C-alpha cells in the first residue's frame, strides 16, 4: 500500500513546505497502515479507502502542522522539556498522532471516551516507538492536568470544546480547533471569557475543501 501512497504523501508534504525527515515520512505511512489494519476491528473511522485516508485524514492533519510548529517555537522551554498538547476526541489519532510524529518537541496526549480508540493510540505509540504519544481513556471534562495547547478536529462546537476542556488548558495556553468553513455562529456563541485571537485559513493538498484553525485563549 505504501508504495502507491508515498508519492502523493511526499508531494503533499512538499506543497505544505514541511521539512520532514525520511524517517518521519515512513512513520506517517506506518501509522496509515495501522489505522487501516485496526479500523476493521476497532471501527476507528468511517473513512476506509486508503487513498481517502491519506487525503482526508493524513494530509488534512498535516496542513495544521506548520501553524502548530510556528506557535510551539515561540514558547519558552528548558532543554529536553517537551510542550504538553492534549488532542481532544482524537478517535483514531487525528490529528494527535500526526502531531506526535512531526513535532518531537511536543508531548501529545490523545483523549477519547471510547476505550478501544485510546487503546489503539497506546498500541500505535508502541509500534511506532513514539515516546511522546499517549492514549487516555476518559471524558475530557475529567482531565485537569494543564496543557500548553489543547487541540481538536471534528470534535464539538467551539463553546462545548472550550468549556469541556477549560480545566485542561494552562492559563497561558491556547486552544487550537481545526474546523471546516469559518464557524461564524460558533464563534458568536462563545462566552466572553474565551478570546478568539486568530482564525487561520488552511490549504489541504489534494483536497478541495475549506479548512481553518480557530486559535483561542482564556481571558
Ligand atoms: C467525530 S470523532 C473525531 C475523531 C478525530 N478527531 C478525527 O478528526 O477523525 C469525535 C471523537 O470524540 C470522542 N468524544 C466524544 N465526546 C468526548 C468527550 N467528552 N471526551 C473525549 N472524547 C470524546 C468520540 O468518541 C469520537 O472518537
Task: List its traits.
seven-stranded mixed β-sheet, Rossmann fold, alpha/beta, single chain, 24% strand, 7 strands
- What is the annotated CATH architecture? 3-Layer(aba) Sandwich
Q: Which quaternary structure do these chains form? A: single chain
As for the number of domains, it is 1
Q: Strand order of the main beta sheet, please?
A: 3-2-1-4-5-7-6
How would a textbook summarize the main sheet? Answer: 7 strands, mixed
In CATH terms, the superfamily is Vaccinia Virus protein VP39
Bound molecules: S-adenosylmethionine
| Helical content class | 40-55%
Can you write the helix and strand succession as a string? HHHHEHEHEEHEHEE
Q: Determine the mean pLDDT.
A: 95
Shape: globular
Any idea of the CATH class? Alpha Beta
CATH fold topology: Rossmann fold
Strand content: 15-25%
Give the helix/strand class: alpha/beta
Our Rg estimate from Cα atoms comes to 16 Å
Q: How widely separated are the two ends? A: 47 Å
Low-confidence runs of at least 5 consecutive residues = none
- Total DSSP E strands: 7
Keywords: Cytoplasm, Methyltransferase, rRNA processing, S-adenosyl-L-methionine, Transferase
Protein name: Ribosomal RNA small subunit methyltransferase G
Catalytic activity: guanosine(527) in 16S rRNA + S-adenosyl-L-methionine = N(7)-methylguanosine(527) in 16S rRNA + S-adenosyl-L-homocysteine
Organism: Comamonas antarctica
